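Re: that chain you flagged

S.,

Sorry for the slow reply, it's been a week of failed gels. I finally had a moment to sit down with the sequence you sent. For the record, here it is as I used it:
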Amino acid sequence: MTAAISLECIAQRPGADAAVVFAHGLDGDAVATWGAFPARLAPEIPSAEVFTLSWPAALAKFTAEAAHTIPAIATPLAGVLMRSLSGYARVHLVLHCLGAPAVIAALHRAAGNGFTCPLLTCTLIDAPLLAPDATAPAWLAPAMKLMGLEPEMLIVQTRWLDEICAAPCQVLRGADAKWIDHCAPFALSDEANHHHVPLDHTALAAAPVEGPFAPLSLLLTYFARPIPMPSGARTPGKFPDLNSHEFTNVTPHRI
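Prediction finished late last night. Pasting the structure tokens below so you have them in one place:
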């Protein structure tokens, strides 16, 4: 499985203190999903190295192989993330669709092995995460079971991501993705960072690259904002335990 997981740096900058990682979703890949987005972004953020993540996300593979699940993918994916992203002062994740629960699961595995990040920020695009008070749509449980996840774990992941990010996530929802209405992780965002954008869920590469509501423009605006170091009880860069009672004691609503 590790052979199918890779993190390609498309903009190498010696001494860069930040990394931006594009992770595709179900049935996607690093080229077809994103098109020229990563390459167009790179010149605009000279302080960051830009990566595209490839992972085995074919629906046919999930359907045909019972052992092919998000938890199984998370372990080798964690190793790739740790080797490539350790040492950056800031890591910004751009997570599409099922790429969100896959990368979050891998981050938790990496955190258990000592991986930390002083500043972690995130852009979620049509991501099937659940807020604690969300209503889980009827299709979600069987879809997640195919991937080896329970809907409750999506709530746990949402709360954990909220805890480890240094700022409210940027949430982009495509105009065609009405299926995500019940599970879009609004709890991770705020009004200023939640946008309905002109993109097709299955063809992100065709989305406009210019204009106030173009995904790339919104991402650049979000990345450029000053992000203060986290304050309060949590140690900056120290990830809490996803399995703690605080995160696992949740019950989703169902319809």
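What I noticed first: The chain has eight helices and nine strands.

Talk soon,
D.
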